[in-house]
Design brief:
Blueprint lengths: L1 H22 L17 E2 L22 E2 L23 H7 L8 H14 L4 H17 L6 H5 L19 H16 L11 E4 L10 E5 L2 E4 L1
Antiparallel strand pairs: 1-2, 3-5, 4-5
Length: 222
């Protein structure tokens, strides 16, 4: 009997050690102690060489970083509307979404967040980032406008002096504008429903938040 108990004790210790190692990995950040001093949002990808003609965007470049805000009750995600019947993929919907002749300020702020935060990600990842901005504006915990969310101090560091850097790839910018429209209209399902926060995989802030999705280089929480 004593040998059986000793073997069980050794197995339990082994499982505990394995669990501690698992929690130390970045993918388990939501199970670690929350740290308010670490960035909530980070920017992947490098700029492409083509200059865009967005005259009101600043030429100052930066890497976006956002800091976490204290938890509260989960907020519902934007409910998706039905896409046109002949649209089968998000890529097709992006291609079928015309760029407006004039981009209103709220759409420009949302598209800017998509472009500077996730232009190197898949379209699904870009859409999830757009919904984080929209969810924040609807949550009551952040500014009520999309521009207010994007320009909130210490949230997105690509915004400097109230301005965004210059757009350097017109194709990626057009995709970001289309994704922003799709997210604002709720015309495609968001794979990170209710998310209010996200960070890159290489960051481990140790938030005590509910992890809702992992898409490309980003992990999303509410």
């Amino acid at each position: 009997m004593s040998r059986i108990l000793n073997a069980a004790s050794v197995a339990a210790v082994g499982l505990t050690a394995a669990s501690m190692l698992m929690l130390a990995e970045p993918g388990f950040a939501s199970d670690l102690a929350e740290s308010a001093n670490l960035p909530a949002i980070t920017l992947p990808g490098a700029d492409a060489p083509v200059e865009a003609d967005e005259a009101d965007l600043s030429t100052e470049a930066s890497q976006p970083v956002a800091t976490p805000t204290p938890d509260s009750q989960d907020e519902p995600a934007v409910e998706p509307k039905a896409a046109p019947q002949d649209i089968d993929t998000l890529a097709e919907l992006v291609a079928a979404t015309p760029r407006p002749a004039e981009i209103d300020p709220e759409l420009r702020c949302l598209a800017g967040a998509v472009y500077f935060e996730s232009r190197g990600e898949s379209l699904a990842g870009q859409l999830a980032v757009a919904h984080v901005v929209i969810n924040r504006a609807n949550s009551g915990r952040f500014p009520k406008s999309l521009c207010g969310v994007v320009h909130q101090p210490s949230q997105f560091s690509f915004v400097r002096g109230g301005k965004m850097p210059a757009v350097r790839n017109t194709g990626q910018w057009n995709n970001a504008v289309a994704i922003a429209q799709i997210a604002r209209e709720g015309s495609w399902k968001n794979q990170a429903p209710g998310a209010l926060f996200f960070h890159a995989r290489y960051v481990s802030p140790g938030w005590r938040k509910t992890r809702v999705a992992s898409i490309d280089n980003h992990i999303f929480y509410r």
